[in-house]
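Reply to dn_fold:

You asked what the input looked like. This is it:
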Amino acid sequence: MRFKMFFLMLIFSLGFSAYIFAQDKKEDDEVLRVDTQLVDVPIVVTDKSGKPLLNLKQSNFVVYEDGKKQEVSDFSATSAPFEVALLLDTSGSARADLQLIQRAAESFINSLRVGDRVSIIAFKAARQDNKSVAVSEVLIPLTDDKNKLKNMLAEVKTSNGTPFYDGLARVVERVFSEPPKEQFRGRRALVALTDGVDSTSVGSFEEAREMFEQAGIISHFIQVDTREFFEENLLGDCQSAMRFSSAQIRRYYRTFYPKSRIEKISGFCQLGDFERLDISRRLYELADMEMNALAKTSGGKVFPVGDLSEARAAFSRVAQEIGTKYSLAYYPSNEKRDGTFRKIKIELKGVPAGAIVRAREGYTAPTK
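and this is what came back:
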């Protein structure tokens, strides 16, 4: 009898210990998962003619980080909803075409699917320290109410400058400040209508790019060509000409002639026509490079347009692009928090020959 009681107590003790061990392991696993960054990867797959391949499954994708295969934790098909930050640049030449911008943005909102949510960010003129300045403003937070969004488009104003980099920062800090709900994981996007030439931002492109990389936001740009309009009004009498801001002149010298010993001019009226044209050319090249870099690394795309009359058609292409994106997520096998850049590669399986994949190219590991 005593032996039987001892045996039962032993079994109970072993079972209880196993239960405690399993619970501790489960809690350890959960702590590890919470402490490890889940990496979201948006993906577009097209056939060799450029037509999107739909109805693919998780088994069609293999993800590698720095050459090492990763285990996919989450997968969303193309039908899953998106959250979109719609950034409208109403500075420069766009000021004369505000209604074109509003109508094009309205057509974009109408083309979105059930469940998609949109926020609108725009530039406006404001008074600071008794001076007129251009600032970026979130007009409406994320919502799927199309009537509210279209009504808010009527509130879009014009600005006398382009705080483009600050506008990008607002997207991360204000629109996407909270972690996404499960259905929107890896499905957050910026759609910006702009020429990308910043003139008045307090922050820098490098700061905005780092924020976007950390947040995993897909970047799409409808790139409006305003260079000809700008340069037509750039030359001649400096009092009546369209001017560069002091920030643009400093950016020009800092970016393109950082080690030059030539005297750096700070005032627009000190610039001759040759210098004005060179600054303009360089700043537009810089904007083109920045937008393409942000789009490429995030799995997004740049849609060039000749002028704002083409914006509506470009918005339609962006909406189609968003509607054909897959997304997957994984916990990196490399758990180091060392701030290094990790390369992501997506391999396709069981798809037609010649298929092309476009995806997020990498991310910077956290340091904390």
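The chain has nine helices and 14 strands.
Hope that clears it up.
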